[in-house]
């Protein structure tokens, strides 16, 4: 393609709202174009890279035996009512009505649709297993769309669903997808880590997230360098502090602790360590219709942080069904007192207690009385729980839940997730098959998503410098850019055009920068766009020589045009598949 004929608009200025490199660079290169908050279009360079990523995903899905289909983004509410998610999904679900007032949504994901296909088309064990996938536009009305393609309201996702006769079959399908994801993200040039992920109230080792390591990522992961443990911090189990079996319970005592509303304040005031205190966190919960339906008090040791995902799973509700409580309002109903709430004085609310607290003795907690705390509070004698479960956040340096060595933390971008659904959807929507004995059985399902456009942003996060993007060859919009220093110079033009043709004949995707711009502008654009190979045709053209430079390296060499052709073809062919 000749740059002089391309629709291209690069920006010199950094757009204000863009904070992270991928957002800034994708806008500056003109690869993406914002329409409204969280909604982007793709311009020629951007769309070529999207299609490259899609193609890698498609090849690996096809090679895994999955079959591509394409379903609509418009989904009827009835199917979501059957699965129970029409109400449960919350405000992220982009609901629409047709002219007759019938409810629909723009699909944030397609479990219902694929389950519907399979329940209609599959009747016998002979038709299973099966994997179906699509690469399609998804809609989520995110509360805080940000970072460009990273968290948008419209985005492209590959979603795949597996259908098996039994749990062993599902395990096999899951492993096939896990391995395919490993190849896909490698081919995209990403440095990533598969980590165990939260799988909701079902629990168990039923899900992995594929996380591209990056400081700007929104996923927090904990991993251990001594064993293979790697999990999202939402999911990571915590080791309880050892139970103090030999410590005697002392008599509970009330203390006047004026103005000590934080753990730090009360610990200092009473001369205790934070480990000797109990932290209370108070919540109100909502039913699926959004009506208030109760209060929850969660308790962890004073120095710990509450893990919201674990709390939500323990209560078996969705994240949008719980929020921090207005303590004054809650106090009237339950007896809590803001800053002085403890587990001993509460009524009419669900007490969820972290699993290590029952083993710890003589702790300090709020007295549910203004300016007062209790000391020597002990589980069993002084308070009881409705639910006891691990509610803690695993912090850097805490013991690894598998081997006990100190864990490390890293940040990353969730680019994909694999998930064993089991019979969740087949049971609610009646997707069954007849087994060898003509007995009706539920289909075992898995779902597997990759954010195509988020992956594009993640690649930019890992492959850029201060001058622009540095695309890996496998996903670069073009492999090579030939920069004509003086497009009007006959020798330069002739050599450049010949090379342009020869590279195309060799199957290389090549740009010819024949614009009537200053060379400096051309070099800047080539660097910004991140084209992997730059061949400059300048004053040595008369001798048949060009300058050859890789975007990812500093060095440039002057070589014959034949050698440049040979080097480029060899490099592109060895790296184009990633
Ligand atoms: P997140 O936790 O980041 O909101 P999710 O776990 O809800 O994502 P999934 O339902 O697992 O997302 O969707 C599959 C993939 O789709 C994700 O791994 C991610 O790559 C991509 N994705 C999800 N939400 C968005 C979004 N708002 N913008 C861009 N990509 C997204
Ligand atoms: Mg996910």
Structure, briefly:
The chain is an alpha+beta fold and 578 residues long.
Description:
With 578 residues, this protein is α+β, with helices and mostly antiparallel strands. It folds into 3 domains: 17-236 and 409-461, BirA Bifunctional Protein, domain 2; 253-389, Alpha-Beta Complex (YbaK protein), CATH 3.90.960; 478-575, Rossmann fold, CATH 3.40.50.800. It contains 14 helices and 31 strands. Strands 3, 7, 8, 9, 10, 11, 12, 21 and 24 form a 9-stranded mixed sheet that branches. A 5-stranded mixed sheet has the order 16-14-15-17-20, sandwiched between helices. Helix 2 (44-63) crosses helix 11. The radius of gyration is 29 Å and the shape is globular. Adenosine-5'-triphosphate binds next to strand 8, strand 21, strand 24 and helix 11. Residues 109, 140, 142, 151-152, 155, 157, 414-417, 449, 451, 453-454 line the site of adenosine-5'-triphosphate.
């Amino acid at each position: 393609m000749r740059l002089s004929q391309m629709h291209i608009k690069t920006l010199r200025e950094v757009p204000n709202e863009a904070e992270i490199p991928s957002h800034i660079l994708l806008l500056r290169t003109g690869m993406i174009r914002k329409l409204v908050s969280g909604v982007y279009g793709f311009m020629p360079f951007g769309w070529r890279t999207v299609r490259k990523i899609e193609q890698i995903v498609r090849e690996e899905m096809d090679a895994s035996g999955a079959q591509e289909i394409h379903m609509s983004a418009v989904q009827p509410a009835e199917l979501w009512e059957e699965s129970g998610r029409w109400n449960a999904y919350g405000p992220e679900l982009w609901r629409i009505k047709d002219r007759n007032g019938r409810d629909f949504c723009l699909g944030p994901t397609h479990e219902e649709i694929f389950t519907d296909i399979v329940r209609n088309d599959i009747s016998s064990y002979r038709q299973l297993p099966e994997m179906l996938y699509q690469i399609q536009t998804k809609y989520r009305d995110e509360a805080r769309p940000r970072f460009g393609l990273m968290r948008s309201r419209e985005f492209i996702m590959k979603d795949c669903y597996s259908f098996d006769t039994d749990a062993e079959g599902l395990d096999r399908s899951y492993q096939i997808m896990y391995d395919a994801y490993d190849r896909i993200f490698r081919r995209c040039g990403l440095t990533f880590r598969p980590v165990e992920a939260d799988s909701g109230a079902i629990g168990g080792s039923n899900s992995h997230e594929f996380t591209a390591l990056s400081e700007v990522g929104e996923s927090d992961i904990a991993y251990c360098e001594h064993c293979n443990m790697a999990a999202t911090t939402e999911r990571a189990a915590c080791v309880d502090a050892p139970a103090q079996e030999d410590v005697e319970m002392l008599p509970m005592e009330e203390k006047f602790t004026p103005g000590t509303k934080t753990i730090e304040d009360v610990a200092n005031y009473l001369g205790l360590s934070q480990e000797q205190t109990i932290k209370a966190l108070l919540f109100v919960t909502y039913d699926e219709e959004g009506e208030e339906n109760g209060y929850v008090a969660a308790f962890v040791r004073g120095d710990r942080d509450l893990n919201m995902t674990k709390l939500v799973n323990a209560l078996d509700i969705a994240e949008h069904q719980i929020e921090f409580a207005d303590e004054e309002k809650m106090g009237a109903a339950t007896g809590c007192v803001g800053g002085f709430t403890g587990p001993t004085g509460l009524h009419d609310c669900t007490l969820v207690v972290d699993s290590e607290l029952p083993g710890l003795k003589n702790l300090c907690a709020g007295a549910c009385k203004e300016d007062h705390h209790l000391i020597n509070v002990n589980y069993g004698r002084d308070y009881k729980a409705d639910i006891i479960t691990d509610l803690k956040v695993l912090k850097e340096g805490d013991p690894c839940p598998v081997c006990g060595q100190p864990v490390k933390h890293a940040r990353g971008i969730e680019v994909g997730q694999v998930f064993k659904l089991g019979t969740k959807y087949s049971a609610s929507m009646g997707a069954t098959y007849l087994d060898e004995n003509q007995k009706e059985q539920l289909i075992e399902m898995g779902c597997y998503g990759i954010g195509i456009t988020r992956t594009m942003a993640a690649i930019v996060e890992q492959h850029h410098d201060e001058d622009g993007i540095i695309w890996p060859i496998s996903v670069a919009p073009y492999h090579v850019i030939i920069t004509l220093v003086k497009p009007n110079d006959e020798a330069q033009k002739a050599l450049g055009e010949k090379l342009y043709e020869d590279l195309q004949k060799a199957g290389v995707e090549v740009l010819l920068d024949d614009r009537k711009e200053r060379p400096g502008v051309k070099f800047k654009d080539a660097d910004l766009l991140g084209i992997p190979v730059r061949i400059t045709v300048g004053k040595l053209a008369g001798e048949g020589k060009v300058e050859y430079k890789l975007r990812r390296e500093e060095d440039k060499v002057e070589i014959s045009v034949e050698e440049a052709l040979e080097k480029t073809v060899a490099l592109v062919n060895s790296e184009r598949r990633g």
